[in-house]
Design a protein that fits this description.
Helix content: 25-40%
Number of helices: 13
Number of strands: 8
Structural class: alpha+beta
Strand content: 5-15%
Largest sheet: 2 strands, antiparallel
Distance between the termini: 117 Å
Length: 454
């Protein structure tokens, strides 16, 4: 018996060891490699922007000078660092920016607080711009060229003391006109791309901001022949040759490790609020930015308050006689037009309709006649689609109000009556006088004669 038991125990122990060894050879379901693959499969695929959407997205910066535009496009792929840089700039200004660990493009944009704050204040737009440049850099550059051609056709993209417009084989470049300063244009996309911004000596819809220093941080430029952004290393012709003598080279911005321009591919995983992009529709007004319907017309505008709300409907509807609910009397109010009740998503109690006041020919409301006992009224019929509301039962008959006491409806509707503060004060004073009055002496009951015992 003991031998059989020992054999059974040894067999079970051997089988358990073999099972453990087999499981150790197999990769676990929760290994990091497999989890990464599952995460990649769960991440939604990038949906490219249409050409019209790119035009709407790039319209605010399409006329920026090329050195600044190149930095903005690359820095937009680092939206988190843009937000961090904006916080730094608000606290410390531009001091110590070169010592930060942000991407070199973010460092460059941070030297221009107006541009940095614009990108930070519109972080959804910045994120969408960065995503488009990561996956559609060629389409982005083509969109910029289309917009510049539209502005040039309207006569709004010309040489000025602030910028130099260079057209090479149909590719339009914008350079700084001075060797030491660069100017950021301020313009209305709904004007500059569709009609002349100059007229009769009046400059409307297009201007330039203050002069900004050209520094060594502007180490990128636009290659319109190859439709790309590239690192210059401050070697080249044109605006680079003019500005090169006025800058100080350092290894923070001029370094061989920047030869390959690096963008942040993780920006594509950052969610974008499509509703925040709805105001960027100045070029193609019928194109929206919905992530599941890119290229489709923008949806019809919905009420700002969303779900039906009877209070808001009453306040914005001219047929609801809003002045009656503000404590103001109307000499000749317009009778309210009763709208057909619409089925609501959420059941709400219907408003109780008040009986209209009867007016005499002279325009003075007829005073209510005293009645010995009010006649019971049948309950009002509720509109279909709403829960039934029980009507209050009429109370006992009261003394009719005098003509002097008749007042217009107060701020809470007609059915609440009028509150006479003077009468209430007098009643309160009488109550206090009664409470302060000394109590009357209680009469002592006469004592009964005691019976005599015989």
């Amino acid at each position: 018996m003991r031998k059989a038991l020992a054999f059974a125990v040894a067999f079970c122990f051997t089988a358990a060891n073999l099972a453990w060894a087999g499981s150790a050879r197999r990769p676990s379901s929760g290994s990091p490699h497999q989890q990464d693959q599952e995460a990649e499969q769960q991440q939604p695929a990038y949906q490219p922007y249409s050409a019209d959407q790119l035009d709407n997205l790039l319209a605010p910066i399409a006329l920026y000078p090329d050195p600044l535009l190149a930095q903005v496009l690359v820095a937009a792929t680092f939206p988190d660092e843009i937000d961090e840089a904006a916080r730094w700039e608000r606290d410390s200004g531009t001091n110590g920016i070169d010592d930060q660990s942000w991407d070199v493009s973010v460092l460059a944009v941070a030297h221009y607080p107006s541009v940095l704050n614009m990108m930070d204040d519109n972080l959804d737009w910045t994120t969408a711009l960065g995503q488009a440049y990561v996956y559609q850099s060629t389409d982005v550059m083509s969109s910029i060229q289309r917009l510049r051609a539209m502005a040039e056709q309207q006569g709004n993209l010309v040489d000025t003391p602030e910028q130099q417009v260079v057209n090479e084989d149909g590719e339009i470049a914008i350079w700084p006109a001075t060797p030491e300063y660069i100017y950021v244009p301020v313009y209305d996309p709904s004007i500059v791309f569709f009609r002349p911004a100059y007229g009769g000596g009046v400059f409307a819809g297009f201007s330039f901001g203050p002069a900004l220093v050209i520094g060594v941080w502007l180490n990128l430029d636009c290659d319109w022949g190859g439709h790309r952004v590239f690192y210059t290393g401050w070697r080249g012709s044109g605006w680079i040759a003019r500005s090169r003598p006025h800058i100080r080279i350092n290894t923070i911005y001029v370094n061989s490790r920047y030869t390959n321009v690096v963008v942040n591919g993780a920006a594509a995983q950052r969610p974008v609020n499509a509703g925040a992009l709805s105001r960027y529709q100045n070029v193609h007004r019928d194109v929206g930015f919905q992530n599941r319907g890119r290229g489709a017309p923008a949806p019809a505008r919905q009420p700002a308050y969303g779900v039906p709300n009877k209070i808001i409907d009453r306040n914005i509807s001219p047929s609801q006689q809003i002045e009656y609910f503000r404590g103001r009397s109307q000499p000749t109010p317009t009778p309210a037009v009763r709208a057909v009740p619409q089925p609501s998503r959420f059941p709400t109690a219907p408003r109780q309709s008040q009986p209209p006041s009867v007016r005499q020919p002279g325009g003075v409301p007829e005073q209510p006649r005293p009645a010995s006992r009010p006649q019971p009224q049948p309950p009002a019929r509720q509109p279909s689609g709403f829960p039934q509301v029980r009507q209050p039962q009429p109370g006992p008959a009261q003394r009719p109000a005098s003509p002097a006491a008749t007042q217009p409806p107060n701020a809470f509707g007609r059915g609440d009556g009028y509150f006479n503060s003077r009468a209430a004060s007098e009643r309160g004073q009488q109550s206090r006088q009664q409470m302060n009055r000394p109590p009357a002496a209680r009469a002592t009951p006469a004592s009964k004669p005691r019976p005599r015992h015989r």
